Amino acid sequence: QAPVTLSRARFDNYQTMATFARALGCEPTAIRERNEMNTRRPSRSSVSHRGRRVIAAAQAPDGTELARVLEVAVGAAKEGGIIMARKVGADVIKTKVNARDLLTEVDGEVQRIIETRVAEAFPEHGFLGEESVAAGKDASADALRDVLRQGPNWLWIVDPIDGTTNFVHGMPLSAISIGVAYKGELQAAVILDPFRDECFTATLGGGAKLNGSPMKVGEESTALEAVVVTGYAPTDASTDVMLKGMTALANLPVRTIRMLGSAAIMLAWVACGRVTAYFEADLNSWDTAGGALLIREAGGQMTNLVGEEYDLTTRPILASNRATHAELLACLMVSLRH
Q: 162 labelled as ligand-binding?
């Protein structure tokens, strides 16, 4: 089979998009609804630029405001991280979508800490936390859509424990993820790994940092050099997509493939150069919002699995160091056709 070469993998034709939507276990109408919502967004005083929205300069948050938002986000995450580190291995209190989708009492406890700190500092800001939304991708997509359409300009998108299965089993590989958006555009991000005492931060236009020091994506230039990570999804449809992708990448080949169980940490690791790329078939906004800004500010790239630039409504993702993105994306796209 001839290799696929993509310099800019982007599809505007609805039928082509529908084919890939079905491969990802989505209905084509979901693509249409997302496009319709994106079409309406420019009415919120924004303009389109290179495939993503940007806030008009006169209305963008200033540096002082962003610094305050980041300060509160870091403080809240660290406070929650103390609880996480103390209670790792906590019992499951219930399952959500199925037995792979776990919930502990610590998830809610950490979210309440963060939500309280946000309300104290910014009572006018909106808050979307995983534990406040019913289980399932439809509920999460609806909650995000509603708050983007009707909510306040500022929105905090929070996963109190990303990597709950690892957390439950006593594996110190989970994190708190916070993304803060203004009029739908990510402005600040924090991913806190309390077990390694690592705090990954970014602000829009301000770069990305690890414990206060600048960080950047890795320098791998080809797929053969790439360390690629994926996850094990809570649904069979999403897992099938990822297993097909792993097989295709192994045959490409890439240097190695890992499944480590925390989207937030993997995105942070792409941003700091520990791994080259990360892909998943279906993630919620709270899984990806913080990591997406980290990667952008660290020089990387994040798209969906048909090459469209990431926004908060994106569910299937490929995040990379940018240099390997086209080659990895082409491989994954071919795998989804079969």
A: yes
Q: Is 327 annotated as a binding residue?
A: no
CA distance 210 to 28: 39
Question: What span, in angstroms and rounded, lies between the C-alpha atoms of 10 and 22?
Answer: 17
Q: Are 219 and 273 spatial neighbours (Cβ–Cβ below 8 Å)?
A: yes
Strand bridging mode 92-95 / 102-104: antiparallel
Cross-strand pairs, 46: 55
In this prediction the pTM is 0.83
Helix (H, G, I), strand (E, B) or coil at 255: coil
Tens digit of pLDDT for each residue in 176-199? Answer: 999 999 999 999 999 999 999 999
- The amino acid occupying position 67 is A
Backbone angles phi, psi at 134, to 5 degrees: -60, 155
Q: What is the dihedral of CA 293, 278, 329, 312, to 10 degrees?
A: -40
pLDDT(278) > 80 = yes
Please tell me whether 91 is known to bind a ligand: no
- What integer is the mean pLDDT of 141-153? 95
Does residue 182 sit in helix, strand or coil?
strand
State the pLDDT at residue 31. Answer: 46
pLDDT in tens, 279-330: 999 999 999 999 999 999 999 999 999 999 999 999 999 999 999 999 999 9
Amino acid at 89: G
- What percentage of residues in the chain have a pLDDT greater than 70? 78
236 is in an annotated binding site: no
Secondary structure of 117-161 as H, E, C letters: HHHHHCCCCEEEEHHHCCCCHHHHHHHHHHHHHHCCCEEEEEEEE
For residues 323 and 305, give the distance between their C-alpha atoms in angstroms, rounded to a whole number.
16
Domains and CATH numbers, the chain: 57-214 (3.30.540.10), 217-336 (3.40.190.80)
Neighbours of 103 (CB within 10 A): 18
Q: Which residues pair with 199 in a beta bridge?
A: 192
List pLDDT tens digits, range 2-24. 333 333 334 443 444 444 555 55
287 is in an annotated binding site: yes
Residues 6+ positions from 332 with CB-CB distance below 8 Å: 245, 248, 249, 279, 305, 318
